[in-house]
Amino acid sequence: MIRQYVIKAAQLMQWGKIVLPLSSIKFFPPQFILRNPVTQGVRFAFNEGYEAAVIVFNLKNSKELADFLGPIQFLKFMDRFKKMFRQSIEGAVDAGDIITLHDYYGDGLSLFIRAGQSRSGLSAIDSIMRIVAGQARRSLHSEFPDVQMILETGYMFVEKKSYSIHEAVLKAHQQAVAMAERRVESEFNELVFIMSKIISQREIFLLAQPIIDVATKEIRAWELLTRGPAGTMLENPLTLFSVARQTGKLYELEMVVLEKALEQIKTSECTQDIFINFTPLTLGNAKFVRDLKKLMDKYKNISPKQITFEITERDSIEEMRDFIYNIKVLRLMGIKIAVDDTGSGYASLNTISEVMPDIIKIDRSLIQNIDKNTVKESMLKGLLLVAKEAGSLVVAEGIENAEEASVLTRNKVDLAQGYFYAKPAILAKKIAT
């Protein structure tokens, strides 16, 4: 009898640990929550030129499930919950991109991954969240058909400029949890307030990076790159746009970027083409064409033919009924369309077939060390054939040395940009020839 009570007590303690609320972890030293392997993995990702992000999968109704199932069955459910998520993650994320998967608190799991520096990483994270949550939910339902599992997800990028990677990891994890839980009087509301302030006061700034004619080495266009308030965690564009997306402020932010871009074109008196980044979510918004025309009316001296809208992410466009329509209207106005990050996955090729863009931008991942990799050069040649078939110009991104540039020259790539040519800077006045 005593032994039975001991077993039950141990089980209850284990169950209690699993449903421990997040607020409780604040009483424990950070080293017991986030161990060195996480910090080391994030540091390694940074050193390799990647970003690092944490995705939180939160089981919102864990306490209700514990009451419904009872301690023993709930323990079994949670064990399967974690195993199913691990299997789903292994199927959805490249092994090399997984830093670690942890259950820091009982209500959910936290996945740390490395991500590319371009904004296409945001839609990739959204895709991971949907795939993993969907697969895990279906697998668990087959074993626990009577259980209604309510999942919440959120993510955040780890701040690179923090004085301590360990502290940056803790902060990113806390904010990702806040995004997942959407808690009242939480970090989520604080981030909503900060993002609203940035938008209302237009606290962003734009840098311009030249796009170079590979044959003549002349500047043909400029890409405008967004940065958040200097010296803050939101200065990083990935963090800025991920917070805007999760707080429902993405459209408003991108419209501020557009207005600031038009202001810079006017102030600098630039007459060369300007590339401005947009997500499909914004380009497919039913209000976008109307709002765009209002802004263009304020800047009548800027020709729409000078503007290229660059599709920066890989959200599914099939269900965006206004997306293709808006693209057609933009083209009638004279605005050109570019597809970014081509070569980084199937989705970008699918977008090319749907949009038939004027410009195809080849992702840095394909260009990096292309002079040492014949397979990458063969892939480049294939994309050049795709571009020719689509009637598109090609821009190679992320050129960092003369060797990479020489591969572009011998393959007759149209345009290029990267640190080899110039780093982003303020768009100066009267740069046009």
TrEMBL record:
SMART domains: EAL. This is EAL domain-containing protein. Pfam families: EAL. The lineage of its organism: Bacteria, Bacillati, Bacillota, Bacilli, Bacillales. It comes from Neobacillus notoginsengisoli. GO terms for molecular function: cyclic-guanylate-specific phosphodiesterase activity. PROSITE patterns: EAL (PS50883). Residues 188-433 form the EAL domain.
